[in-house]
């Protein structure tokens, strides 16, 4: 969690104003005192030393503290403007493409060119959604996008009038995205590719 930099800066600025006002008042008192005592101060070495010490203390103490507070306030305000290292790089893309499906019973079967997939940044997390007329819909939240994608979700699919929900695991890369359904037909993998399917898609060669 980040500290509330704006609150800290406001507090430090108020302290700066307080110290500055204190400095102005001490300076005023010194000048008034010098005016009142006048020549008596110049003749009285002891009082002269007292005023000198007070003035030096004011210059070295109050001013130093004042400028330190100002510097600290500016530092906090600058840090507020720095980017949050934990903030994700925003991604907002929508793809249309084609899919191949493999299971324990068949390999690289072409299932059309009607699949949709999107990747969006929502509340500082990546969300991936997939939709296909035959293979249903799934939303993956808190997705990790590095060299490969990683996430889990629930796919809802209707087959012959019956609707079921199945565990889904997101994988692959941004170029070739996979969705694995461990509990469907002994383990089923949907492979999504962006764009129009190649001419040899029906043969399964386009899946390679």
Task: Describe the structure in your own words.
This protein is α+β, with helices and mostly antiparallel strands and 208 residues long. The protein has 2 domains: 5-81; 92-199, Lipocalin (Beta Barrel). Helices cover 36% and strands 36% of the residues. It has 3 helices and 9 strands. The protein has helices at 5-37, 39-43, 45-81; strands at residues 92-102, 109-110, 115-122, 125-132, 136-145, 149-159, 162-172, 176-181, 188-194. It has an 8-stranded antiparallel beta barrel with strand order 1-3-4-5-6-7-8-9. Strand 1 (92-102) and strand 2 (109-110) form a beta hairpin. Helix 1 runs antiparallel to helix 3 (45-81). The longest helix is centred in the first third of the chain and has 37 residues, at 45-81. The two termini are 45 Å apart. The mean pLDDT is 77.
Keywords:
208 residues, alpha+beta, Lipocalin, 2 domains, eight-stranded antiparallel β-barrel, rod-shaped
Tell me, rounded to a whole number, the average pLDDT: 77
Report the CATH topology name of the largest domain: Lipocalin
Class by SSE composition: alpha+beta
Number of strands: 9
- Our estimate of the beta-strand percent is 35-45%
Biggest sheet strand order reads 1-3-4-5-6-7-8-9
Strand count, sense and barrel status of the largest sheet are: 8 strands, antiparallel, barrel
Count of alpha/pi helices: 3
Radius of gyration: 35 Å
Residues in helices, as a percent range: 25-40%
What is the CATH domain class of the largest domain?
Mainly Beta
The CATH architecture term of the largest domain is Beta Barrel
* Outline type: rod-shaped
- H and E string: HHHEEEEEEEEE
Q: First CA to last CA: what distance?
A: 45 Å
Number of domains: 2
Poorly predicted runs of 5 or more residues: none
């Amino acid at each position: 969690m980040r500290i509330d930099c704006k609150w800290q800066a406001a507090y430090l600025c108020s302290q700066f104003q307080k110290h500055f006002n204190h400095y102005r008042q001490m300076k005023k008192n010194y000048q008034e005192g010098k005016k009142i005592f006048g020549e008596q101060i110049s003749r009285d070495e002891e009082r002269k030393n007292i005023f000198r010490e007070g003035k030096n203390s004011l210059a070295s103490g109050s001013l130093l503290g004042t400028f330190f507070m100002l510097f600290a306030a500016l530092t906090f305000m600058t840090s507020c403007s720095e980017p949050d290292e934990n903030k994700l790089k925003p991604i907002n893309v929508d793809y249309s493409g084609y899919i191949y499906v493999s299971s324990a019973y068949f390999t690289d079967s072409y299932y059309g060119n009607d699949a949709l997939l999107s990747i969006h940044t929502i509340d500082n997390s990546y969300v991936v959604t997939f939709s296909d007329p035959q293979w249903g819909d799934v939303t993956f939240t808190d997705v990790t996008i590095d060299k490969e994608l990683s996430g889990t979700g629930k796919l809802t699919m209707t087959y012959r009038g019956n609707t079921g929900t199945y565990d889904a695991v997101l994988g692959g890369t941004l170029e070739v995205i996979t969705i694995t359904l461990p509990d469907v037909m002994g383990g089923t993998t949907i492979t999504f590719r962006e764009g129009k399917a190649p001419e040899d898609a029906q043969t399964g060669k386009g899946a390679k």
